[in-house]
Design goal:
This protein is mostly helical and 148 residues long. The chain has helices spanning 3-25, 30-56, 66-88, 94-118, 122-143. The structure holds fe (ii) ion (FE2).
């Protein structure tokens, strides 16, 4: 099984947990809570789409994920670290959290764009492009939550 796909699924799951944690402790603004929940739900959809792609994957898939492998590995570490920070520091300032998530979603967008190119089957390419639009929507939603 392609390590890169497994790690992508893990990243989506971790990002969902970050958003879920933020939703649970959002006390200042009920609207923000709704946005965090929506973001978390969509990350769980992304993970499901990737799981499905993983099941569809057979040896027939020609793939060269050389470029993305390192990027995905680094992003996984970064996502884990941020989840830990969010869990351990409940008093992180709102805008700082939002900006960090914008940076993380942007990094994910780049990886998904590379993977859309590197996977040689149309269905997987399509799936990664649609993940890319998902990331783009998330960045727009997050930008709407910036207070400054
Ligand atoms: Fe996602």
């Amino acid at each position: 099984m392609l390590k890169v796909l497994m790690e992508c699924i893990l990243i989506e799951n971790l990002v969902e947990r970050i958003y879920r944690t933020l939703a649970e402790r959002e006390s200042s603004n009920p609207k923000y809570r709704q946005v965090w929940e929506k973001l978390a739900d969509e990350e769980s959809d992304h993970a499901r789409a990737l799981e499905m792609a993983k099941r569809l994957l057979r040896e027939r898939v020609i793939v060269d994920t050389h470029l993305s492998e390192k990027q995905v590995g680094e992003l996984l570490t970064r996502t884990k670290q941020f989840l830990q920070a969010v869990q351990e520091k409940p008093d992180l300032p709102h805008d700082r959290v939002v900006r960090s998530m914008i940076a993380l979603e942007n990094a994910l967008m780049k990886v998904h764009a590379n993977l859309a190119i590197e996977f040689k089957t149309p269905d997987l390419q399509k799936m990664f492009s649609s993940l890319g639009s998902g990331d783009e929507n998330h960045v727009a939603l997050l930008k709407g939550m910036l207070e400054i």
